[in-house]
Structures are given as C-alpha cells and as structure tokens.
Amino acid sequence: MSQQPLPSPVVEVPREPRSFADIRASDRVQGFLFTLPALLVLGIFLAYPAYYTVRLAFYKGDFLYGFAGYLGLGNFKELLTNDPSFLDLSHWPPSGALINNLRWVIFYISLSLIFGLGLAVLAVRVRYERIVKSAVFVPMAISATAVGLIWLFVYSPDLNQGVVNATIHAVDHGFHPIAWVGRPSTVNYALIFAYVWASTGFVMVVLSAAIKGISTEVIEAARVDGAGEWAIFRRVMVPMLSLPIAVVTVWLFINVIKVFDIIYVMTGGGPGTTSRVIAYTMYEETFANGRPGYGAAVAALMLVFMIPVMLLNIRRFRSERVTN
Q1: How far apart are CA 293 and CA 285, in angstroms?
Q2: 98 touches 278 (CB < 8 A)
C-alpha cells in the first residue's frame, strides 16, 4: 500500500504594513469617523481652552474673562521681574512660587521614586504581597483634600493630636512642639512629604508590575555569575526598569506642576505667600484678585514647562519601540 505524501506546510509570509497612500479612501473616511467623537471632545475641552488661555495671557482681561486691554508681554514681564510672590531673586536663596515648584520637583519626585521603587522590590518578595500593596496604595485612593486634612492633624503642634510632635516629645521630653505648616522654613517640606505619602503607592504598583515582567532567567544568570543582590538591583533591574521609571517620573512631574488642592487645604499658600506654587498663584490671581489675564499668563507658563517633558517622553517611547 503506497504511502500518501505528507502535505507541505504552508508558510505565511508576513505582509508589510500598508502606507497611508495605500489605504483606500473609504477606509480613511471610516477611520476618521471613528476618531471624530474623540477629536471633538479634545478640541472642545482641551485645545480650545488652551488657545483661549494663551491668548488671554496677552490681555488684561475683564470680569467676563474677555480680551480687554491688550498688554502684549506685559503680564509675563511683571510675573518674572516685578512679582516677588512668584519669583524673588533679590536675596539668596531665591524664593517665590517658581522656586517652590523647583523644590517640589527635586524632593517630591526623588523621594516618591526612592520609596516607591524600594517598596516595589520588597513587595514582590513578601508572602502577603496583595495585602502589602493594598495597604500602601490606600493613600492614593484618598482625595488630596482628605490627605491634607489628615496631615494637618499629623503636623498639629498639639501633643494630643500631632503624631510628629508627640513622637519627638516621647524621645526628647525637652522638645517644644513645632507648627510644621506654620513656619516658613518647614512648611514646604511638610507639604512635600505629605504628598509623597499619597503618591508612593502608585509608583510602587507600576514598578512592581514592571519588576515582575523581568525574566527570571536573566536574574538567575546574574546570580550564577556571582552577582550579589545589590549588584543585580543596580546593574540588571534598574536598567531594565528605565522606561517604567521614565513614565512614572513624567506623571510625578505633571503632579508637581499642577499641585494645588493639598496646598489650598493645608496652608492656603501661607504663611504669607511662602508655600505658594505656580498652580496656586494662577488660582489666586485669577479668582481672588480678579486678574484673569495675569492668571492666564501663569497658566501659559505651566504649559511651557510641561511641553518639553512630554516631548522627551514621546521621543523615548519611540526609541524604545524601535529598539524592541
């Protein structure tokens, strides 16, 4: 009995992606119609308000936020040279809302990354990982207003309420309670640490998921080569986590630029104007002081600060995709 020849395997040749010119006109129209609702939402609620705000920054503005009293670059000139609450270079160290935001960028982002990465590395090694992650992530689920109220009690100078002062007093009975959010020298750092507490959970969850994506074979190969845990962390884990860390850093930077609610709840920009940041200055000038054009100039500067970071992030995503 003759054997039947085995069917030859069918090899599928991968098709090259079509260029935009090869797509039929009907497919282009269909794709445009699918994206049209999203484009309309972005145009109405994002693009047009951004255009309106940038344009208003060149005017004095009226109580209806209209384009009244053209000033050109007058608002920006006053903001950067004649407004000590925004930028004061007359003494060292300089002060003002812009310097406070720089302080937030340095301390808030670095502390959030350090605590978040450390907790992520530890969380994947503990037995009750889900419970630990849930406990650390809880502050992220709380609104910034509630976070501010919680930390007002934590920082309270009353030893019966303030956890920080009560803890220090328990160690040193000669310690006099400090109003942490009532002193210009400590208020910004107190606010930063409170917001770090609220943001660390998000950083931990993102980075722990990225750590789980690292191949165990790579880690085991490093151990076989004699690398210790600290060397594996520095030379294997951190380089492979560069993209997730970059994404989290951008998210933290955006938080810094638009931070407002926790400052509004805890200090109201005080004492005086020592804890003001850019977003709080925009709110204060636009609504409290009735200067919509000046507030729009502050908002335009916020946009200017965000654009380079977003462009760098997009460029990094593209280079990572090409590498992979």
Answers
A1: 9
A2: yes
pLDDT digits (tens, 9 = 90+) for 153-184: 999 999 888 999 999 999 988 888 999 999 99
CB 235 within 8 A of CB 227: yes
CA-atom Rg of the chain in angstroms: 27
Q: Can you spell out the DSSP letters for 197-243?
A: HHHHHHHHHHHHHHHHTS-HHHHHHHHHTT--HHHHIIIIIHHHTHH
DSSP per residue, 117-156 = HHHHHHHTTSS-HHHHHHHHHHHHHS-HHHHHHHHHHHT-
Distance of CA 305 to CAs 223, 241, 278, Å? Answer: 43, 25, 11
Say how many residues make up the chain.
Answer: 324
- Cβ pair 100, 248 in contact under 8 A: no
Average pLDDT over residues 14-42: 76
Domains of the chain, first to last: 97-323 (1.10.3720.10)
Residue 110 binned pLDDT confidence (cut-offs 50, 70, 90) = very high
The whole-number average pLDDT for the span 96-103 is: 94
Q: What is the mean pLDDT of residues 262-280?
A: 93
The answer to whether the CB of 86 falls within 8 A of the CB of 285 is no
In this structure, are residues 233 and 124 in contact, taking their beta carbons and an 8 Å threshold?
Answer: no
Candidates 264, 127, 119, 270; CA nearest to 197 is 119
- The pLDDT of residue 312 is 81
On the CB side of 285, how many CA atoms lie within 13 Å of its CA?
27
d(CA 242, CA 106): 19
User: How many Å apart are CA 151 and CA 173, to the nearest integer?
Assistant: 23
In tens, the pLDDT along 211-262 reads 888 888 888 888 888 888 888 888 888 889 988 998 899 899 999 999 999 9
Backbone torsions φ then ψ of 18, nearest 5 degrees: -70, 145
